[in-house]
Amino acid sequence: MSLKENIDLTKLPQHIAIIMDGNGRWAKQQGADRIFGHQHGVGSVRDTVEAAAELGVKYLTLYAFSTENWNRPQEEVNALMELLVHTIGAETATLNKNNIRLQAIGDLKSLPGSCYNELQEAIANTAQNTRMTLVLALSYSSKWELLQAIQQIAEKVENKQLLPADINENTLARHLCTAGMPDPELMIRTSGEHRISNFLLWQLAYAEFYFTEKLWPDFKKEDFYQAIVNYQSRERRFGKTSEQIISK
Ligand code: IPE
Ligand code: IPE
Ligand code: MG
Question: Helix H segments across the chain?
Answer without folding.
Answer: 23-29, 34-55, 74-97, 113-125, 142-158, 169-174, 221-232, 242-246
